[in-house]
Amino acid sequence: MNLEQALVRIEELEGEIATLKAELKKYENKSLGGRKKHDDKWQNNYDQWLRLYEGGSSTIEIMETTGMSRRTFYRYKAYYDGLNSAMI
């Protein structure tokens, strides 16, 4: 094997490494299903819900404003009630 062949082979291997890293990244970010943990997006949605809920908005108004389902509304409410009962 001469130098030119070695350089060509190095380029091939670097391309293969880049492909494998991209595939690995896809698996690292793969959702395992179920509800998401309380990440930044969840926290932002909850904060919006909280402002509306404590501001006296009705259930329907909150669901229309935020685009959330009734189930999500009551999940947030249960979380809110749980926090408040823990503080008492």
Strand content: under 5%
Give the overall shape: rod-shaped
Query: Alpha-carbon distance between the termini?
Result: 77 Å
- Number of helical segments? 4
| Succession of helices and strands | HHHH
Helix content: over 70%
Query: Which structural category do the helix and sheet elements fall into?
Result: mainly alpha
Mean pLDDT: 88
**Uncertain segments of ≥5 residues (pLDDT<50)?**
none
CA radius of gyration is 25 Å
* Biggest β-sheet description: none
Number of strands: 0
Provide structural commentary.
By secondary structure, the protein is mostly helical. It contains four helices and no strands. It is rod-shaped and about 75 Å long. The termini are far apart.
